[in-house]
C-alpha cells in the first residue's frame, strides 16, 4: 500500500513536467515537421525534402558542420587547460564566476562590441599599427566569425570540464605518480579518461548551438559564412518560404539528436 501511494505521488509530481515537455518541446517539433510538408503557396508537397539534398543545401550542411567543429575544437583546446588550472587555484570558485560572468551579458551587445573592436578603426587594428603590421581586414572574415563564436561559447565548455575535474579523486593521480607514470602518461591514462564525461557535455553544449548560428554570421562574418541557421532565418523572415525553412530545421533537429546520442553517457554492462 505504501509503495502504491509513493508511486501515485511520484506520478502526480511528473504531471507538470510532462505537460511542459509536451507544450514546449514536442508540440513545436511537430509543428515544424508539419510546416515542412508545405510549399511557399501552402500546397502539400515533398519537394522541400528533395530540394534539401541538392548541392546548394548539402554544401551548406557541410559548411555548418565544419564551422561548428572548428568552434568546438578551439573552445575545447582553450577550455580544458583553463579548467585544469582553475582547479589548482585557491579561490577557484571566484575565478570561475569571473569567467562565466560575460555569459550573463546580452549576446547582441557582445557581438556589437566586437564590431567596434575588429572594425577598421577599432582596438585590434590600432594594436596592429602600433607593432608595425598595419591595419588589416579583420571584420567580415572566417577568423573573426570563429573568434567571436569561441569567445561566446568558452564559458559553457569550461563549466562541465571544471565540474568533472573537481570530482576527480586526487589520490588516483598520486597513485599514478607513485607507480612511476610520467606527467603525460598520468594525463592520458588517468586525468583525461576520468574527465571525459565533462568533455562530452561541453562539446554537446557548444557544438549543437554552433551548428545553427545565424546572428554572428550576419553581423560578424557579413553573411560571408553561410550556415543552415542563416538559411532558416532567410526562409522564415525574408523569402517567407516557411516550408523550406521548417525542412532545414527538421534536419537540424535530427542532427542535434544524433549528436546527443553519440556523445551521451553509456551505461557499462556488468562484468
Automatic annotation (TrEMBL):
PROSITE patterns noted in UniProt: ABC_TM1 (PS50928)
What SUPFAM superfamilies does the record point to?
Answer: MetI-like (SSF161098)
Keywords assigned: Cell membrane, Membrane, Transmembrane, Transmembrane helix, Transport
Gene3D superfamilies the record matches: MetI-like (1.10.3720.10)
Principal place of residence: membrane
Q: How does it sit in the membrane?
A: Multi-pass membrane protein
Name its cellular compartments: Cell membrane
The record, for CDD domains, names: TM_PBP2
The membrane spanning regions, by residue number, are 12-37, 65-87, 94-118, 138-162, 201-222, 242-262
Q: Which residues form the ABC transmembrane type-1 domain?
A: 61-263
Q: Which PANTHER family match?
A: INNER MEMBRANE ABC TRANSPORTER PERMEASE PROTEIN YDCU-RELATED, INNER MEMBRANE ABC TRANSPORTER PERMEASE PROTEIN YDCU-RELATED-RELATED
Q: Which family does it belong to?
A: Belongs to the binding-protein-dependent transport system permease family. CysTW subfamily.
Q: What protein name applies here?
A: Spermidine/putrescine transport system permease protein
Q: Say which species the protein is native to.
A: Caldalkalibacillus horti
Amino acid at each position: 500500500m505504501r509503495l502504491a501511494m509513493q508511486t501515485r505521488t511520484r506520478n502526480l509530481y511528473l504531471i507538470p513536467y510532462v505537460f511542459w515537455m509536451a507544450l514546449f518541446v514536442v508540440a513545436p517539433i511537430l509543428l515544424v515537421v508539419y510546416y515542412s510538408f508545405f510549399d511557399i503557396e501552402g500546397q502539400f508537397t515533398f519537394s522541400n525534402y528533395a530540394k534539401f539534398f541538392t548541392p546548394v543545401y548539402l554544401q551548406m550542411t557541410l559548411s555548418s558542420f565544419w564551422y561548428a567543429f572548428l568552434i568546438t575544437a578551439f573552445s575545447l583546446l582553450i577550455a580544458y587547460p583553463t579548467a585544469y588550472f582553475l582547479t589548482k587555484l585557491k579561490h577557484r570558485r571566484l575565478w570561475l564566476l569571473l569567467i562565466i560572468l560575460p555569459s550573463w551579458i546580452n549576446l547582441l551587445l557582445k557581438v556589437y562590441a566586437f564590431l567596434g573592436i575588429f572594425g577598421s578603426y577599432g582596438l585590434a587594428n590600432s594594436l596592429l599599427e602600433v607593432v608595425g603590421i598595419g591595419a588589416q581586414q579583420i571584420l567580415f572574415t572566417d577568423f573573426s566569425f570563429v573568434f567571436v563564436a569561441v569567445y561566446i561559447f568558452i564559458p559553457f565548455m569550461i563549466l562541465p570540464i571544471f565540474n568533472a575535474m573537481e570530482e576527480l579523486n586526487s589520490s588516483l593521480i598520486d597513485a599514478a605518480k607513485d607507480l612511476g607514470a610520467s606527467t603525460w602518461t598520468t594525463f592520458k591514462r588517468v586525468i583525461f579518461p576520468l574527465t571525459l564525461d565533462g568533455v562530452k557535455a561541453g562539446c554537446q553544449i557548444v557544438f549543437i548551438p554552433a551548428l545553427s548560428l545565424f546572428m554572428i554570421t550576419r553581423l560578424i562574418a557579413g553573411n560571408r559564412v553561410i550556415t543552415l541557421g542563416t538559411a532558416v532565418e532567410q526562409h522564415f523572415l525574408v523569402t517567407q518560404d516557411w516550408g523550406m525553412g521548417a525542412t532545414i530545421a527538421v534536419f537540424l533537429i535530427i542532427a542535434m539528436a544524433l549528436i546527443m546520442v553519440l556523445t551521451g553517457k553509456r551505461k557499462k554492462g556488468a562484468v
